Amino acid sequence: MAAALRTTTRGIVDSSTRRRAEYSTDASNYRVVPEMVVFPVSTDDVVATLDVTRELGVPLTARGAGTSVAGNSIGPGVVIDFSRHVNRVLSVDPEARTARIEPGVVMSTLQKAAAPHGLRFGPDPSTQNRATLGGMIGNNACGPHAVAYGRTADNVVELDVVDGTGRRFTAGKGDPTFAAVPGLARIVRDNMALIRTEFGRFGRQVSGYSVEHLLPENGSDLAKFLVGSEGTLVTILEATVSLVPVPSAPTLVVLAYEDMPTAADDVPALLSLNPLAVEGLDARLVDVVRRAKGAGSVPELPPGAGWMMVEVGGATPEEAYANAEAIVAASASTSTRILPAGPDATAMWQIRADGAGLAGRTPAGEQAWPGWEDSAVPPEKLGAYLRDLDALMARYGVDGLPYGHFGDGCVHLRIDIPLETSGSVLRTFMTEAAELVAKYGGSLSGEHGDGRARSELLPVMYSPEAISLFEQLKALFDPQDVLNPGVIVRPNAVDADLRRPKALPVLPIKGGFSFSHDHGDMTQAVHRCVGVGKCRADSSASGGFMCPSYQATKDEKDVTRGRARVLQDAINGTLVGGLTSPEVRDSLDLCLSCKACSADCPAGVDMAQYKAEVLHRTYQGKLRPMNHYALGWLPRWARLAGMMPRVINAVLGIRPLAKLVLSLGGMDPRREVPKFAEVPFRTWWKRGGATNGVPGLAVGQTPGRPKAGKRPQVVLWTDSFSDALAPSVPQSAVAVLDAAGYDVIVPDQQACCGLTWISTGQLDGARKRLENLLQVLGPFAVNGIPIVGLEPSCTAVLRSDLLDLFPDDPRAKAVAGATNTVAELLTRPETRPAPETWQVPDLSDVTAVVQPHCHQHSVMGFAADEKLLRGAGATIDTLAGCCGLAGNFGMEKGHYDVSVQVAENALLPALRKAGPNDIFLADGFSCRTQADQLGGVQGKALVELLAERL
Fold it and tell me: What Å distances lie between residue 912 and 541, 897, 908, 938, CA to CA?
């Protein structure tokens, strides 16, 4: 089969173990390993692949972004990934308000193409910045604005498809003979009474095949019928979809309620006012965001246990606001807030968009799973249905956080069903839940499709005659049952092919991470990835950093989700041979360890930590790659170089010698070795340098000793990078902190955080250094003295990795709690200087390109720095995304090209665009190094800028 596919297609045919693991699951509970994955470069490749698999009788599954929650986009045989190449917007017709697209186009890409014409595609699922139109058509996706614009089916005009017999045709509407599919008209004619009574009963009846569209009174619409058929009848080659005008002045109303069923009771009263969206949101979901990112990450909300988010539009902002007030008046809520378009409204929509990931853990921290995540009932019955569903969950002793499209009667809900050992509870719960939704005249699925999760339960919802109708349609379009078998017709069991029960616990080993946030089990940690695929999206426009390697390569291998799937498969052990296997090393190789996923992934995946743990387990007690010694022990080499820095710099300044050293050290010879400081900071400090030429310190003042009078003390913690490679940064920090009224303490002993040992998986070595750090900094922290970190990646270790490596050490918690960035210290109410004592220097003449360090974005956040800079009058362009060097990553052999590609995502274009007098501001040493080596731009740290203005 592989030989035939490689002969007949121009695309990539990949049957490697690692690739099969990456595509063995989607955003569902299921794992089905394909034989191979095909990446077509054109629709001709797709047709050729279909011909080969049909001739050989091999199953085929079409896949877009792989965000299907019901197991719709996985299957045996061949998986076709449309998203890599078959992903163009072919045309936009603003007069007809239509667009012609290929199935792999991401929905947000279509929105960008339509926006200049004042148009958009109506349905907008929460995964719109990575979901493909082919997948949306396959599942009949809806999203929040389906209340106003309908489902995907309501917005599809024509489909260019190939069915399971090899028949290619254009599916449209208006032909009651269905000439393109002989035999279809007879099936419709023979089943008209059945179709009219069992199908199309309410808007979100998506389960099964939507045969109501084939009725003559509904336009005999073959295209709309095929929408939602989940790739079981046809494979889409192209689609023509309708567009709608972009609403002007959208305004969000937040209505608070005592519980979610009470919120649902209010839906019918609001629908009569023609809102654009009506979304439910459990308060506990918002609590997840607050715990992860701080209270400031959530707008002020009216008090309640749950909310409805109702969006309205208007010709003007005033009209929209009036419509919002009408919603408030019509609601039964006693506590409300109206949010015009702006940051607060955007933040609320982002929380709602991240619902699937946020709901992956219950309030008690237990893993929660899909399966019953997409049920729908007529909106007027939603409140009663939710109360009965709550009772069913209570009877099973399970919990979940409901949210979803309440205006359409659709509920999204992940439940902590115990899948760790078997799927027996899942089967019984799902069966009872299906009976419950059928009692209310509802649908097993409201937009996600039935897939492997619910297809077996269709007889609970439909009559035997309806199930027979599905079988007749399947036989007509796909008689060999090669298109996505096991879905809808002749379905696999609900509890077959479950991924989680086969993954045994992976408990901590000596020296490794504790995984205390995952009950001490690495298996639970890697299964945080629920597959929603936010890591595939370019979220830089909204300030996201994840996932830089994927944005460079567009390969599932190089995205957080793909890596998590390979790790999950390694733990499963039936395909990938364990955590030390070559497939795992290959998967993790281009991970920059930027930690962006730990903040940007709504499920809290921390691939940098998993990579460090895997490297630790792989090489513990063994000979390591040379770069682990060269870069992983960098603080050690820096101290040695500090003994004769001029000689070392002179030798490494000879380019052939530098290239040799780089190559021998496992580094790319195209890189340059940073220069070592002739006088490291700690040497300068001990020599009394703090009294020589540094503003703010009195001549003769002993370093670290307060002036006369009581001033607040701070510990200036100088990491290895700042000390040996950039001493001007801590020197500037001394000046700024002293001028701001602090007494600066520099501990006598060096305290390394072990960052480079962590990033290379030498966790035993990292522990030794952190144990020493706790001895040095712990006494200050437990006595309430703030600690100031300068290098963001090192500061982040103290705020994150330290806690996981020493979960039971109270000193670790004290140090983490006491550690601040300079900006945090100067802006936090509890530590900032009194305004009458000191104010940040005027920066109104400063225009800067600012590169936040990835670890700062992920752990500390950049809000304090932005607040300080903007408050001082600076004009800043804050970049989103990694610089590409990422500590040791960009230095390592084999990573240079990807490092440059990542830099081209944001950093290098911004530097080229900057004006001649603009400055480049970056606290991260690696960020400044990347800008220097690739862009020829010298950067400075924030404290250096402030010190210049004292």
Answer: 19, 19, 6, 13
Q: Which two tokens stand for residue 200?
A: 């199309």
Name the nearest CA neighbour of 617 among 800, 764, 516.
Answer: 764
Beta-strand pair 277-282/36-39 = unpaired
Distance from C-alpha of 415 to C-alpha of 433, rounded to nearest angstrom: 12
Q: Does the CA dihedral 291-297-299-300 come out positive or negative?
A: positive
C-alpha to C-alpha distance for 423 and 494, rounded to whole angstroms: 8
* Tokens 């001739």, residue located: 55
For every residue of 805-826, DSSP letters joined together read HSTT-HHHHHHHHHEEEHHHHH
pLDDT tens string 67-113: 999 999 999 999 999 999 999 999 999 999 999 999 999 999 999 99
pTM (two decimals): 0.94
Tokens 């890596």 map to which residue?
563
Segment (H or E) for 466: helix 464-477
SS in 3 state form for 226-249? HCCCCCCCEEEEEEEEECEECCCC
Give pLDDT tens digits for 439-449: 999 999 999 99
Q: Measure the CA–CA gap between 313 and 299, rounded to whole angstroms.
A: 21
How far apart (Å, rounded) are the C-alpha atoms in residues 569 and 575? 7
Structure confidence at residue 689 (pLDDT): 62
Residue type, 332: A
What pairing do the DSSP bridges indicate for beta strands 78-81 and 98-101?
unpaired
Residue 223: both structure tokens together: 């295209």
With contact defined as beta carbons under 8 Å apart, do 257 and 331 qualify? no
d(CA 849, CA 837): 30
Q: What is the pLDDT of residues 272-290, one digit of tens each?
A: 999 999 999 999 988 888 8
Cα separation, 109 vs 891, in Å, equals 34
What one-character DSSP code corresponds to residue 481? -
- Amino acid 576 reads V
One-letter amino acid at 566 equals: V
Interstrand relation of 60-63 and 36-39 (parallel, antiparallel or unpaired) = unpaired
| Residue 660: count of CB within 10 angstroms of its CB | 12
Single-letter amino acid code for the residue at 462:
Y
pLDDT in tens, 830-859: 999 998 889 999 999 999 999 999 999 999
Structure tokens given for 218: 């509904």
**Cβ–Cβ < 8 Å for 420, 369:** no
* Count of positions (residues) in the chain: 950
Kind and range of the H or E run holding 637: helix 634-641
* Rg of the chain taking only CA atoms, in angstroms: 29
**Using one digit for the tens of pLDDT, what is the confidence trace for 551-571?**
999 999 999 999 999 999 999
Q: If DSSP codes are grouped into helix, strand and coil, which group holds residue 864?
A: helix
Structural element, H or E, at residue 281: strand 277-282
Element (H, E) at 655: helix 655-664
Nearest to 75 by CA among 658, 392, 486: 486
Instruction: Give DSSP secondary structure letters for 157-222.
Output: EEEEEEETTS-EEEE-SS-TT-TTSTTHHHHHHHTHHHHHHHS-SSTT--SS--GGGGSGGGT--H
Residue 40: name the closest of 183, 191, 237 by CA.
Answer: 237
Q: What is the DSSP string of 283-326?
A: HHHHHHHHHHH-GGGS----SSSEEEEEEE--SSHHHHHHHHHH
Q: Is the pLDDT score of 702 beyond 90? A: no
